[in-house]
Amino acid sequence: MIATLVTPGRHRRLTRRRAVMLALAAVVAGLFMLTLMLGQSLTPPGDVLRVLAGQDVPGASFTVGQLRLPRAVIATLAGMCLGLGGAAFQVMLRNPLASPDIIGVSAGASAAAVFAIVFLSVSGASLSIIAIAAGLGVAALIYLLSFRDGVSGARLILVGIGISSMINSFIAYALVRAPGWSLQEALRWLGGSVNAVRIEQAGPLLAALVVFGGLVLSRSRDLETLRMGDDMAAALGVRVGAVRLSVMMGAVGMIAVATSVTGPIAFVAFLAGPIALRIIGPHGSVLIPAALIGAILVLGGDYGGKFLLPARYPVGVVTGALGAPFLIWLIIRANKTGGSL
Amino acid sequence: MTINHRLQVQDLTAGYGDRTIIEGLGIDLLPGRITAIVGANACGKSTLLRVMSRLLRPRGGQVTLDGAAIHGMPTRALARVLGLLPQSPIAPEGITVADLVGRGRHPHHGLMSRWGPADDHAVATALEVTRITDLADRTVDELSGGQRQRAWIAKALAHDADLLLLDEPTTFLDVAHQIELLDLLCDLNARRGTTIVMVLHDLNLAARYADQLIALRAGRVHAQGSPEAVLTEATIAQVFGLTARVMRDPVSGCPMMLPIGRHRLAAK
How many Cα atoms occupy the beta-carbon half-sphere of B227 within 13 Å? Predict the structure, then answer.
């Protein structure tokens, strides 16, 4: 049988891919447990499991159930949304710079939230809704402005970067005009953090992950084919325009919802895809690994910002500090080799 | 043997933005044969190939496959019949040859279908025909230009399309690899009856390997027919604005042309 020439190689790659994904999932689970167990005080794993099972454990129920669990759950879900949404954009446009946090989607959500905090004194669920709506609106604006006989990747990125800087100047304006009390609130929001999250906020995140994440994952084979260029993908039967539109909607939806819950956690959407690609290699889709890396970045960044640094920092500061050098490295490297992702 | 599909272009007008590249162009491609499209730079060769593979929507006229307009056909159904190798295809970074060739199976898979033995078989056959089986686990980035082009041809083979469109497949290849590639396409045509349509720059290779030549000039068909009928001194002068001598190639018996410039002309 002639197929024996290629079948073993394919099985080998598939096995490796599964092993890597399992390892990533194990790291997510490990960080999740670490967040539940080790804070200001150490809770033994047995107690943690009992609290998770719904039992009342004196001294642990409040710390684990009320403080740490919401934080761990939100960090995981938000990280997955950001990682999956970011990677989908990057793969679709074949450019790591095409991440929603660089082309202005997160900035749009942030600007609306800051505006609402500073000028309308809004908080809670209505703040989230405003942020989501603005994220979607900005994405639609970028799409329309870069549309000419279909959307080309480079044009969309450039339009997005332009819009992003306009929005950032608007945020700066709002912060200058903000009265003291709302300035604190706005800055806290802009930092991107999972401090003070409530477990109810997991609902929208989970829904976004299922609905929008499902939409993106259902296109994963088309996305893989798009990596060979729009022309080649079209010739192989991918409806490029339709795939782009649905992937964009899904990715933007996830990013906007995640941003509305945690604030803009810098660079997670941008970092997750390229990191996942380095780890998983070029075989098969990078989407699920990127979602896991996103969760690892947010969980790890949150934990590191809390306990591993001399002062306590929100997760957005930690991921931002990781992301900026990576961005520079990526640009230098892209100039040398041409493409990536 | 594959089923012979008939690709026809009728009264086609196409272009980009305000520029009209092709106007009122009509051709009928011979099923099961090799057709080479030749012409000067910017005469509309690549544009024509883009319209024929449905990457570009025509302004007027239509391209039909077995009588039905391709711009109305379901994307995947068309992709199963019609394969394309663009001029500079992009290989995802770090992809192995086997995986790249496997991508050619995309049109045969729907949303839910899984990779099966038939796919492995198609990939293995394509690797063997293009003689790159031993490169299967190497990454495309490590290959030489000739090997890479063979990998792309293998991808087109795994695609299993009955009609294969190629945009300047021999660019960037040295003369030995050009011949090897064209021989490979001939084998494919002879063995499987795949209809091959390619844009070629080298007139002598086009005349030798194609059953039908189509010479474009300023977005229109200037001449079409057998190499003997198309590759004439008059056509070369009109299409390329070049003086040339056409003689019989002593090896293949096909017409062969010698370009004549302003220098290095030995005295009679």
Answer: 23
Listed in sequence order, the residues at least 6 apart from B100 whose beta carbon sits closer than 8 Å to its beta carbon are: B91, B92, B140, B151, B152, B154, B155
B116-126 confidence digits (pLDDT tens): 888 888 899 88
Query: CA B263 to CA B153: how far, in whole Å?
Result: 39
pLDDT digits (tens, 9 = 90+) for A304-318: 888 877 777 888 888
Nearest CA in chain B to A337: B93
Structural domain spans, chain A: 2-336
Residue A4 with chain B: CB contacts under 8 Å: 124
Phi and psi at residue B37, to the nearest 5°: -100, 125
d(CA A155, CA A138): 15
Q: What is the pLDDT of residue A166?
A: 93
> A22 exposed, middle or buried (CB, 10 Å; 0-12, 13-18, 19+)?
exposed
* Proportion of chain B above pLDDT 90, given as a percent: 45
Q: Chain B closest CA to A34's CA: distance in Å?
A: 35
CATH superfamily of A2-336: ABC transporter involved in vitamin B12 uptake, BtuC (1.10.3470.10)
Query: Whole-angstrom Cα distance, residue A297 to residue A318?
Result: 9
Are A237 and B106 within 8 A, CB to CB?
Answer: yes
**B89 touches A at CB < 8 Å:** yes
